[in-house]
Amino acid sequence: MSISPEKEHPEKAIGWAAWDASGLLSPFNFSRRATGKEDVTIKILYCGICHTDLHFARNEWGITIYPFVPG
Length: 71
What we know:
The protein is an alpha+beta fold. It has two helices and two strands, in the order αββα.
């Protein structure tokens, strides 16, 4: 019996994602797994991206899977 996506990934999250090779970012709601007993929870206040993220967002290497959340 398989686990439903809602139970397997119950934590709601938001990020900024590129949806196509334009590289433009927009808000992206997604779910992630619950924090486990050996995980650490941190609050991220700021995030940076590197030039590699720009290559991926623009699919310049032809391997990007969208939506793509850089950083």
